[in-house]
Amino acid sequence: MGACMALCSLASCASCLCGSAPCLLCGCCPSSNNSTVTRLVFSFFLLLGTLVSIIMILPGMETQLRKIPGFCQGGSTIPGVENQFNCDVIVGYKSVYRMCFAMACFFFLFSAIMIRVRTSKDPRAVIQNGFWFFKFLILVGITVGAFFIPDGTFHNVWFYFGIVGSFMFILIQLILLIDFAHSWNEVWVRNAEEGNSKCWYFGLLFFTILHYALAFAAVVLFYLYYTKPDACAEHKVFISLNLIFCVIISVVSILPKVQDASPQSGLLQSSLITLYTMYVTWSAMTNNPNRECNPSLLSLVSNISSSSQPTPTTAPGTVQWWDAQGIVGLVIFLFCTLYASIRSSSNAQVNRLMQTEEGRDSQVESKTEEDGLRRVVDNEEDGVTYSYSFFHFHLFLASLYIMMTLTNWYKPDTTTQAMASTMPAVWVKICSSWLGLALYLWTLIAPVLLSNRDFS
Fold it and tell me: What residues form DSSP beta bridges with 368?
């Protein structure tokens, strides 16, 4: 009886995987708007691919695969069975490049298909909001095909795609953080006006001071460990300029004219952007090939000076992705990806940049059927709440960013089959931090300069 009930439950959930809209008729799925459910499922695809990439790059994975009889070329064999797989490709940085290439192709394909979808009544919206099982099969198929791409120049070419895509994704991350800070400040100020004002204002003050304190501590550590009195001039310039720029945006955010035009702006947002800018600065400096200006955390902890000569990673095809800046990058990536899936912002400027509609997600309530089950509601019959095409393009860029993060932004060296730091990665990150600060500054001064336009 239990087995029969389980089969019936699975059958009822099949409509969630193969239906024309996400869980509209499926009682086993949570109550929500279909726009939110769709974004969460696509984000899950991205996170699943990220997890697979992490597993593939774990140290010792190739050694363990070679122990499987008849699997890896050059590994354990079974009499009469030829080992089929080149394990140099299915683990290490090569596997990350191929896995992320497959995810990027998948999301770029959907980005192209979903151009100019206006409502859920568009036939393409059925593809966007349903048929999850078949979409998963497409992703798996592209992934399998990616592992049969010949080495050649693939890794070098895809490295430059990753550089450009990651540059754009860092900007999107900053936009999402700006939106999050605006929403955070708006909610807490509203709660302060409605209830215990001292508690909420203290919370705003505490986190503002915390963000600035962490950013200031980071600047001090940068000058101590990533600069030398007679060397590392680039790092001194990067740290000093970003510190000056962060002071400027903090001052601008509390100017009377800016406050009159944008009452929601304030130091909480500026402090969070300042802290993120310091992270990007640190991340850029850790890609400097000059080891004198880029000491490893191990050398900092053990007080062992590293060689000034740029060296690739210690083992061919091995990338130590779990360094501190890589882990922080993954955490920020996870937060921004999930936030982009569930966000319902009231910030008009950010909504224009992210191609979303203001507050549309929260205006539709879930339906309750006669059987008492709450169904997922199609809240896009009159118009989509976000740009399908731009959302997939955002995930396409996220796939490239994950590829660069897991491989420490190292450039593949096809002659030595190793990875090495490069200055282009440094400049990409630094330039993205400058452009991101410029975007945030524009959100502050645009309502003042363009007073005849509605930025409410």
Answer: 374
